[in-house]
Every structure is written in C-alpha cells, then in structure tokens.
C-alpha cells in the first residue's frame, strides 16, 4: 500500500508551554526512534503548509480564529478558553495550530487525489477543540477539519475511530447531525475522567441517529480486555456503515504509565490496536486509512515506542517487538530526562483476546453490552448474543 508520512520540524512549534503535558518532545523522540530503527528509510516526508482561514472555518467560527491570532498580545480570553491551565497562550499560537491542521488536510489530500492509500500525521489528532473555543490542549480541531475537507472532495461516508483515553468530543460535536460521518470513540468512562462526555447513550441527532458511537471502559482496563471490547463493537458497525475511508485518532494516553488517565494498556496493546486499524481499513474502507496522533503524556517511555509502531504499521514495516532500542536514541533521550528509559520495543504484555460471543462475567462485558444495546439495533444488528 502506498503511504505518506507528514512531517516537518516546524510542527514542534505547537508548544503550549515548557512544562505543559502535551510537549512536542514526544514527536521529536518518536521521529528519532523511527529513523534509528530504519522505519523511515527512503521515506520522503510530506511537508505541510498552514491551513488558510477558509479551511479552518470548516469547523471554527471566524471570531474564534481572530481571538487565537490576538491572544499573544491581548492576554487571557476566558470566552474562548485561551489562557487557561489546559490551553495557555503561546507566541505564534495561530500559525502553529494552523500548521497542524494543514498537515492533516495534506494527508487527506494525498489519499483523495490517489497518491497514497494511507497517510499519517502524528502532530494531528487535536480532537477536543470546539467550534468557538479551545478545549483540552487543542486549539484547532484538525481531525474534524480533515474530515470536512474529505466530504467536499469525493467522500460521502467517512468513519472516524478514536482510541484516545479521552472522549473524542470535538469531532463528535462537529458531526453530531451529519449521517455521512460515523464517529466511534473508545475511551475511559466519562464518570471517571475529563471531559465527562462519551456515554453509550450519546448516539447522534436527527437523521444521524446511530452514527455517534461511544464505548466507555472502566479505569484499569488492560490490553486483552480493551481489545475484546473493541472487537465486540467496532468491526460490526464498520461493516454496516460501509465507509469509504477510515480516519483514526491514535492517542497513546491509554498507556499504563500515562500521568493523566487510568487505563492500563501497554505499547504491545497499542501495536495491536494499530494493526487492527490497518486490517479494518483494508476490510471495510477499501484500504484507505488516515491516521492521526493525539494524546500521550508518558513522553519518554510510552509515546515514542507506541507511535513508532504506528508509523511502522502505516508503512507496512512492522517492527519486531523484541527489537532493541538503538543506543543513539537512548543517548539522546538520556540528555532530556533522568527517568529510566526503555530498552526494547515491547513490554512483553499478552495481547490475545477472547472474541465476544455474548455477555459473560468478564469485567468489560457490561460496558460492551451497554453500547451494543444502545446502537446496534439502529444498524440492524443483534446487540447481545451474536459475534457481529
């Protein structure tokens, strides 16, 4: 499959502050690790350009763009959630955010215009940003912008799959009443984590009822249970919806060492998720796959390994999990942190899972059943006892 990687060091300018959890060092370390392992050998990156206002206004109102531009000189803006602890103002905020959005549009364009079957923008995945305000570390919602662009360039059925630990609320909100877009979010239960949305009962509105799907999972969910839940819900819905392209937000903050949430996945679980996304795109979306980054705050031990596996999966250059991490990467990372650094591309965690065959006493099953009962009948699917 032909694949494109969006990258330029200018994307590191999306830096909310020196000590903000969403620190661009995670992107730099990922690209360094991927290069040192040979994942990017011979790959010419696609260098993005900033998205112009008319593209940003697919999702955001013009007054919000003005506020973002003015924020560095005008100061805190509570109306637009600029200058908060989550979304501090930084110099060049508009340009840096527009460049991220431009990267996701460029990735979408490569697929839409036939130059690639898959494309990845690790700097993207800013899925919380809302129509008129910043939200959850996200200034412009590149996910929704890229989807809107695809809708205007030949696509009429798009599936968005969000595996970040937090609910993909901004993308769901953008397409809540649009039956052309199915949003599926698998996340930590909103009763236990910000932003407090993403219940199974959130289904979409009007003609789009049933196209917003939420699978909230309990804190502590590990790889095998997460994968069981995922496969019990996602493939059947994609089969029923018949998308022309799969857009995925691949947040790595489900990792068990992530400081901001409480799911318990490993880099091995993440690798299994990315391979599942690749398979789902091949089976249900004609092989068309746009992969975006997202959250992930275990900057040194988690994100670089997980997203290197993502790059490798998109490029069909799967990395052996037992592969030793090159000394050159470790030497560089050691200059940035005193924390112990990983030595291989695995955490030796099992990722086999028991397929859904109906409700059991497995802990995640009641959450799976809640989602299936809420949405499966809207697609003509049996919610309880059939492996769809």
From TrEMBL:
Any one GO molecular function term: histone deacetylase activity
Record bears the keyword NAD: no
GO biological process: acetoin catabolic process; epigenetic regulation of gene expression
Pathway assigned to this chain's UniProt record: Ketone degradation; acetoin degradation
Sequence ranges assigned to domain Histone deacetylase in this UniProt record: 20-313
UniProt signal peptide: none
Gene3D superfamilies linked to this entry: Histone deacetylase domain
Kinase keyword on record: no
InterPro entries, A to Z: AcuC, HDACs, His_deacetylse_dom, His_deacetylse_dom_sf, Ureohydrolase_dom_sf
Top-level taxon of the source organism: Bacteria
Alphabetic keyword roster: Acetoin catabolism
Family: Belongs to the histone deacetylase family.
Name of this protein: Acetoin utilization protein AcuC
Biological source species: Actinomycetospora corticicola
């Amino acid at each position: 499959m032909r694949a494109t990687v969006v990258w330029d060091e200018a994307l590191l300018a999306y830096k909310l502050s020196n000590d903000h959890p969403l620190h661009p060092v995670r992107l730099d370390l990922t690209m360094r690790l991927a290069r040192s392992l040979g994942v990017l050998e011979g790959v010419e990156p696609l260098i993005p350009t900033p998205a112009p206002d008319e593209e940003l206004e697919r999702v955001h109102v013009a007054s919000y763009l003005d506020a973002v531009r003015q924020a560095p000189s005008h100061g805190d803006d509570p109306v637009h959630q600029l200058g908060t602890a989550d979304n501090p103002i930084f110099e060049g905020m508009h340009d840096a955010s527009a460049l991220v959005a431009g990267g996701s549009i460029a990735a979408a364009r490569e697929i839409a215009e036939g130059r690639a079957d898959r494309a990845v923008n690790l700097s993207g995945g800013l899925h919380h940003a809302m129509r008129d305000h910043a939200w959850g570390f996200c200034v412009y919602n590149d996910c929704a912008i890229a989807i809107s662009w695809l809708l205007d360039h030949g696509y009429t059925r798009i599936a968005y799959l969000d595996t970040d630990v937090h609910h993909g609320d901004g993308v769901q909100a953008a397409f809540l009443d649009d039956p052309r877009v199915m949003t599926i979010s698998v996340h930590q239960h909103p009763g236990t984590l910000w932003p407090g949305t993403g219940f199974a009962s959130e289904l979409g509105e009007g003609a789009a009822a049933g196209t917003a799907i939420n699978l909230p999972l309990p804190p502590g969910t590990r790889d095998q249970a997460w994968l069981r839940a995922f496969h019990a819900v996602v493939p059947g819905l994609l089969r029923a919806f018949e998308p022309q392209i799969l857009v995925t937000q691949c947040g790595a903050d489900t990792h068990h060492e992530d400081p901001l949430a409480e799911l318990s996945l490993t880099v091995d679980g993440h690798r299994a998720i990315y391979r599942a996304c690749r398979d789902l795109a091949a089976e249900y979306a004609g092989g068309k796959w746009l992969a975006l980054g997202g959250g992930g705050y275990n900057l040194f031990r988690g994100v670089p390994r997980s997203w290197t596996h993502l790059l490798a999966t998109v490029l069909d250059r799967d990395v052996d999990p037992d592969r030793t991490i090159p000394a050159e990467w470790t030497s560089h990372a050691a200059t940035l942190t005193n924390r112990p650094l990983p030595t291989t591309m695995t955490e030796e965690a099992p990722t086999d899972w028991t397929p859904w065959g109906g409700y059991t006493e497995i802990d995640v099953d009641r959450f799976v059943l809640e989602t299936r009962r809420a949405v499966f009948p809207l697609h003509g699917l049996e919610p309880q006892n059939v492996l769809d």
